[in-house]
Write the structure tokens for this entry.
Amino acid sequence: MKASLKVFYLLCTFAGIVFVPYLGAWICFDGHFEHTYFQYPPLIAPVKPGFSLPIFVGVAIIFGIIALVYLVPSLFGFKKVKALPLNEPKNGKFPTWFWAGLLMWGGTLLVLWGKFSEPRWIIMWADLPLFWGFALMMDGWVYKRTGGTSIISRSAQEMIAIGVASVSGWLIFEYLNFFVDDNWIYPAGELIPDNQFTIYAVVGSAGLMPLAFEWYALFITFDGLKNRFADGPKLTMPPWLGNLLLIISFILLFFIAFYPDTLFTLLWVIPLLVISIVLEKLEIWTPFNLVRSGNWSSVLLFALAYLVQGFLLEFWNYFSATHENGQIITQTPAYWAYSVPYINVYHVFEMPALGLMGYLPFGIYCIIWWIVFAYLLNIPSQFTSAKHLE
């Protein structure tokens, strides 16, 4: 298949993800949306259904099974792979950008957690130094462990490009959030004008995906972790199943505005599922190709990367506000909170405990989105083939 035709199919896929839920919502509301339906940032969410024990137990079981895959992979057919000696650093020194990142991240966190009202420019744009500072620290850690090899040391331009890709990759979720009646909101978003918040969201979201790649890069420096999932079940998706899942996914996207409380979890699954299947059909490499030979390392470690980073994001976010009598008091416009149906109990900071599971598919989505972005713009990348695991 010609590259130009592949590009066309990919663009059609993105158009479908964007326009199908809008079409469904337009029909659902007979073309008359409430004035707050597409409000950005969402400040208040509609009332959601309360706790449901059967749904909570069902989701908890799924989360438990996933946890067992990581903790006891042999239960799922993974075999032990002889680990090679760890890559020890040659000089044991952190690079310059590690210390720059520590200053950016630590200084920003100090301002946020100290509840300071100044300097306003840090408070108003906190996500930028917070996310990128931590990414620089992580990259420096990888550089130290490998004796001088990291994403930035190999190609700083690639890290910047991943940041650019992160903007469009994340804003898809901000868009789909409208159709599930705002699973997350920004209760302090009114601290700045809406148009300024949008700029803030675009700039800040550039740091989200690089964090996934840095955690992943760190994970594969540990041979025991890298090889833990390298010899597992060999799975191949037959073409008919891919076609069926594509059809079902777009049907669910169409009806997501009709049943936002029932289908709210699909927000984190469908973009990953649809794009991955299309890439498979276009014969563009993804980490799922390795699953055919039983190597689940990339898939499971990218998922784990954002489960870890997601916990940290919730941690940083929660303590940037004061919580008094159920009220959130913060100077940070990007502070987020959640409003989800059925499982909104046992919180890990602001996040319902079972909601952390959404970070798993998002971690895999990060590498899939980057592969698409790199392919469309013909950007060389170490992550668009299995060579980065060698």
